[in-house]
Backbone:
């Protein structure tokens, strides 16, 4: 079940990749179960990892002969698990998984597969494959062992899809129809970001991710999302949470006013101005979302506040908005509407990533 570890390689749009299992990283001990019978407990011993009485710098755990899954808590993972000491303490756990098996888990987690038209499944598969390959290539320039997070820092991945056979069959079929296909911009694979609902117009990539230099991540109209019932949200930031924003911006506690400082053509707040007793400071709105929680501030498309923007704050701040996600690239709600109107996966992708081209990512 366990063996000495060797590095996995990233091979274009195929082969094994590594995915950090963020929810279990940092644990002092971890138990890995094999469905065919077998269990290994790992724990940290100084700068090494111990299992069944043996200490190593790292372990690469594989399923027993005849199996393909390993279970960690309530999730099962195809492939292998890499376990080693985490620099900050505890254990680091990565899934070493074939790219297509990883994408199957991403599609199951990111979409309502049972109701998704084939064109949407295919478009999502190509976008997710492109994002994974592009990010791993980018991170591989500064790391000999690049990885993806299993949460919204990259794409949500919960391991083997826990879904009925018909759902798993639809995912497998969509992946097979698009196998190896990625979006390219020039010689590079496109960092094809996507989100749940744009609210009517997607965001320009650079406005949300300043490090992005892809021309295809531009703002486009999204009629199906605009015409659908709006996905609305609201939340109230407490005085203590507003003080956290001040701290992040380098201001003393005691936020007096908050107003939008930069707004894109679709109405998204890109940056806000914070005013405190000792002065004013600028803060990116994506930082505001991160600090208050992206599950609460679900987008940057703010439709209103109370008190009104720029008015004096007293106990807290109510934020209202619509849409869900960062707004860049493919809008899943809009793409669903496009697919229902008969658009092909290619047409959907070239609408949300204008200027990109479909290509076989398995070739140089």
Residues:
């Amino acid at each position: 079940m366990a063996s000495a570890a060797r590095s996995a390689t990233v091979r274009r749009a195929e082969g094994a990749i590594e995915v950090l299992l963020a929810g279990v990283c940092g644990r002092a001990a971890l138990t890995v179960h094999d469905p065919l019978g077998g269990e290994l407990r790992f724990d940290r011993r100084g700068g090494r990892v111990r299992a069944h009485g043996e200490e190593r710098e790292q372990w690469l755990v594989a399923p027993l002969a005849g199996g393909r899954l390993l279970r960690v808590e309530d999730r099962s993972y195809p492939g292998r698990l890499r376990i080693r000491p985490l620099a900050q303490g505890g254990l680091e756990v990565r899934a070493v998984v074939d790219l297509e098996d990883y994408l199957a888990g991403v599609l199951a987690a990111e979409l309502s597969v049972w109701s998704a038209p084939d064109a949407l499944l295919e478009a999502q598969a190509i976008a997710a494959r492109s994002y994974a390959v592009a990010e791993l290539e980018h991170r591989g320039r500064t790391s000999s062992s690049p990885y993806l997070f299993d949460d919204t820092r990259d794409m949500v991945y919960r391991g083997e899809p826990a879904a009925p056979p018909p759902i798993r069959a639809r995912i497998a079929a969509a992946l097979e129809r698009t196998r190896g296909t990625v979006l390219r911009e020039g010689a590079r694979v496109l960092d094809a970001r996507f989100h749940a609902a744009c609210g009517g117009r997607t965001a320009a990539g650079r406005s949300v991710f300043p490090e992005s230099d892809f021309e295809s991540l531009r703002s486009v109209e999204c009629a199906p999302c605009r015409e659908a019932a709006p996905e609305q949200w609201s939340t109230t930031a407490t005085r203590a949470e507003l003080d956290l924003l001040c701290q992040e911006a380098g201001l003393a506690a005691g936020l007096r006013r908050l107003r939008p400082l930069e707004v894109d053509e679709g109405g998204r707040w890109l940056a806000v101005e914070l005013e405190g007793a000792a002065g004013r400071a600028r803060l990116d709105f994506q930082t505001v979302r991160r600090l208050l929680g992206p599950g609460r501030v679900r987008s940057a498309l703010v439709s209103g506040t109370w008190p009104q923007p720029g008015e004096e704050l007293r106990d807290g701040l109510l934020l209202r908005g619509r849409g869900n996600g960062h707004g860049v690239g493919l809008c899943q709600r809009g793409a669903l509407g496009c697919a229902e109107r008969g658009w092909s996966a290619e047409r959907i992708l070239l609408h949300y990533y204008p200027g990109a081209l479909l290509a076989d990512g398995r070739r140089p």
Summary: The chain has a mean pLDDT of 93. The CA atoms of residues 78 and 101 lie 7 Å apart.
